[in-house]
Amino acid sequence: MNHSLLLHRHADSTGWATAAATAIARALQGPQRQRLLLSGGSTPAPVYRQLAQAALDWGQLELGLVDERWLAAGDANRNDRLVEQQLLALQPQARLQALAQPGSSPALSVQAANAHWQQQPLPTVAVLGMGNDGHTASLFPGARDLAQALDSTAPYASIDAGDCPAAQPFAQRLSLTPAGLGHCQQRFLLLRGNDKLDTLTTALKSGNPRHYPILYALGSSTGPLQVFWCP
Q1: 3-state SS assignment for residue 175
Q2: pTM score, two decimals?
Q3: In angstroms, rounded to a whole number, what is the distance separating the alpha carbons of residues 153 and 130?
Q4: For position 2, what pLDDT does the model report?
Q5: Low pLDDT (below 70) residues in the chain
Q6: Glucosamine/galactosamine-6-phosphate isomerase domain: which residues (predicted)?
Q7: Which of 92, 83, 97 is nearest to 45 (CA)?
Q8: Spatial CA neighbour of 188 closest among 43, 84, 52
């Protein structure tokens, strides 16, 4: 499909979840401390449940988020809630570094996340998703301040996606930037459904990452984007 990605096709969701979790766990093996960035949404839930069973040194892993919706702490629609329910609840040794800080603001939360990243430079693995509009993380095409996030040299930025139907009803976001993605030595993209595969194909043909931000996740010198897909 593209030399910058490797597509793994699976016939059913069970095999897909097992294969993806196994590949992610393999990327995290080793004695050194690492960072694992996770996405929200419904797609990765079965992968996280499988990953929670992996024989990893969870105490050596720093878990973080690819992006977050700016909602009150504990809101069921926050991405950290999905990770808590589908991974942390099954793996008590795992600890999650929240992206949205209580009593803060989007700008201050982003500032804190960027400072933490700078203070704790770690080998990083990212688990990504993609919408039918070609967004990944919270890099929504057409967002008001998308250009600022795309051009940022910091790993995280705040995003106002109020003009983007795919982001509704959660307009205010915190998101990994292309610069942040560039710091992720290994990237995994979890997709389900023919529509998502069609979107990825269209994005690759376009070659325009500002219209299809998923293209910012394509592989680099550290290896291809690993795409796991099932119907």
Answers
A1: strand
A2: 0.96
A3: 22
A4: 58
A5: 1-3
A6: 17-217
A7: 83
A8: 43
